[in-house]
Amino acid sequence: MSARSVDRVLDALGGLLLPPRCLLCGRAGQRPSLDLCGDCESSLPRPARSLAASPAALDRDYAPFTYAFPMDHLVRALKYRGQLAAGRVLGSLLAEDALALGLHLDVDCLVPVPLHPFRHAGRGYNQAAEIARWAGRALGRQVLEGALRRTRDTRPQVGLRLAERHGNIEGAFAADTRLAGRRVAIVDDVCTTGSTVAAAAAAARKAGAVTVDAWCVARAVAP
């Protein structure tokens, strides 16, 4: 039995023991184990185009949802309130959409955008890694957590102007040799200006990645 088949059996058993419950409305979730009901899933905001123009370091820049209600509620629940179940929902949604578009066919591995060790220690987990873990599981793709690392503790990007965002994050990542010769998808929760994923992609290319995509669950829209 393949690893994906084993995962499906475990999901089915887990769903029987602990039925899924929608994180947004509290009603029954979707079998076997998605904590999101069908009505709430259908209400998630989608952009006109999920593939956007890519910065130079990226081959594709992909985000299946718009960062607006109720998607923003799920992202914040994972990022700031420690609801790890939201990571499974977001990773599963990302994988479902990537699978429908066939994006996984051009990717060997998923690499989450890392937190600086100080910030990781304070939060206790990396939200991008939680998303990547469940997306990789659904797509049958290896997740290389730690293949990217932050070389300095940057200021939060929220509230910074465009030029400040680029300067804040430029050169803040390094990648190891596991990415050499690989087709990489860098995974993050929200893309605003693309500065973070572009800087991470530059580090991945320097380490020898053949192609680099950015997969973000949601894209922020300028007011």
What features would you describe in this structure?
It is a single chain. By secondary structure, this protein is an alpha/beta fold. Helix content is about 40%, strand content about 15%. Strands 1, 2, 3, 4, 5, 8 and 9 form a 7-stranded mixed sheet that branches. A hairpin with a 7-residue loop joins strand 1 and strand 2. The protein is globular. The chain starts with a helix and ends with a strand.
Q: What is the terminal-to-terminal distance?
A: 49 Å
Rg, nearest Å: 17 Å
The shape, in one word, is globular
Q: Specify the biggest β-sheet.
A: 7 strands, mixed
How many distinct folded domains?
2
Number of strands: 9
The amount of helix comes to 25-40%
Mean pLDDT: 88
> β content, as a range?
15-25%
H/E order of the elements? Answer: HHEEEHHEHHEEHEEHE
The total of helices stands at: 8
Please name the CATH architecture of the largest domain.
Answer: 3-Layer(aba) Sandwich
Q: pLDDT below 50 for ≥5 consecutive residues: which ranges?
A: none
CATH class of the largest domain: Alpha Beta
The class by helix and strand makeup works out as: alpha/beta
What is the name of the CATH topology of the largest domain? Rossmann fold
